[in-house]
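We treat protein structure as text, and this decision shapes the records that our systems exchange. Because each token names a local backbone shape, the row as a whole describes the fold. An entry from our holdings is shown next, in its original layout:
>
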Amino acid sequence: MVVRIKRIYEEPAEEDGCRVLVDRLWPRGVSKERAQLAVWLKDVAPTTGLRRWFNHEEPKWHEFRARYTAELEQNDAVSKLRELVDSHDVVTLVYGARSETENQAVVLRDYVS
């Protein structure tokens, strides 16, 4: 099993395997056809309050990671993600954030791997 991450604005590729959107909000300017998703797991994304607090501010990254991990411990939607990971050779967690290193998909990849 391989869990990858990729911005939704990058072109989908065959090697992405099962593409899973892990944002609570649909990314701007991307059609469902272009996204080529297997599933949209919005409930596995950070809560609205946490997402707004973090606001993708680099100094908050380590605290965001800790808070989001705590949310995941209590989130039933994680089981659906684990099922997808267990049933596919490759799962790509797709996200809309600008930062490729400080976003919820990074936390999720580490959490389910």
Observations:
- The two ends are 9 Å apart (CA to CA).
- The mean pLDDT is 97.
- Residues 2-112 form one domain.
- The longest strand covers residues 2-7.
